[in-house]
Amino acid sequence: MTRSPRWWPLCLGLVAGFPASAVELTPWLKFDGFGTLAAYRGDDPVAGARSDQRTSQYTSNKEWRFDGDSQLTGQFTLNPSGPVRGVLQVLSKDDVTERFKPRVEWLYASWDISADWTVKGGRVVAPVFLLSDTRNVGYAQTAVRPNQTVYQINPITSLDGVNVNWAKAVGGGNLSFEAAFGKTELNLTSGKIDVKRTSSLALKWSQGPWTVRWGRSDFRLDGSLPATQAALNALSSGATACTNCATVLPARFAFTDIKGHIDTLAGTIEQGDWLVQAEWTRRLSNSALVPDIQGWYAQLGYRVGDFTPYAAVGGLKVTEGPLGLQTHPAAPASAAAANAAFEHYLRNPNDRDTWQLGVRWEVRENFALKLQWESIKNTRAPFLGMNSVIYSPTTRPIGTYIGPAWDGKMNVLSVNLDFVF
């Protein structure tokens, strides 16, 4: 039986009692809050789906789960009307290790140097994607959650460092620039990532209904992924008669000082009742531990009174090159099959296509109820050993699973109530 998060009854009571606007506690202290009550269900009996890489559990076999997107966040702003401000944002959302234990998402001092320039220092947003500022604010988004064909590629939401913003009216539109530099660490379903240094740069141009955004983020990190390390150890032991593993694996799988970057391009159009949103991203690195990958999605919505039906398509493709593992010619056929399975597993070719249909209903001011159906089709068989947004059991010789194979297809149904107060 799936248990609801322990704070749900409290959250429901708070939602019913809070006013539908930010609370100015005093002239120098303001409180904002937002949250989501969520339920989702995957229909496949073998594989499962998570709402995020940092979500501890997955849904499968038509099991309803109530963690996933569910969250409650409070934000305090000190001296909200002044040029120098302080911000504390505390987030309670499912996490691989801490579950719903509240964590500090933002904690920074902000200074408006001029009408155009703002500097923030402390724990600040990591401005990687179009929706980075509102990634945890479901109410600010049309769909149930940011599309994972893009947002899976970088799970980092905040960093400890500095954020600089510049914005100015130029040529009939608005041009803005955002840069951030710092470090962070996070736990994923596959292990732990220690980001020693990351920097992001984003340029955004808005004019009328149009917005275009370009971004680049560079990173340097260490990774601790136990399952991957175990697979490498098995190959290096000679158990599969691999003849080139001793040279290929150390060259391709660095666990420390991994360097790479993420490129992004996004655009939105809000023309009358039409809503269009699209993003593309690509990640490259010098280690197959953080494989080369690219993803995209396009979303179309249309407002009809209090309802906004929408549809989206997306794709994810791993572009990491083959390892080229070789088997000793005198070894049995089972050894060659094992090496082929290990190569597929280590490259993690989680390629997939997705289709979404959903509707957003403005139930009342500052409350939105969303229903979304998503079809997921993984496109590169065999579908084994995935443990991210998509989960599938690891078969022999890598794992111990001996049940029916997954055909690469599943459907996920989500129901979310988003609110701000």
TrEMBL record:
Tree of life domain: Bacteria
Write the signal peptide boundaries: 1-22
InterPro entries reported for this sequence: Porin_dom_sf (IPR023614)
Alphabetical keyword list: Signal
Query: What is the recorded name of this protein?
Result: Porin
Q: Which organism's genome codes for this protein?
A: Inhella gelatinilytica
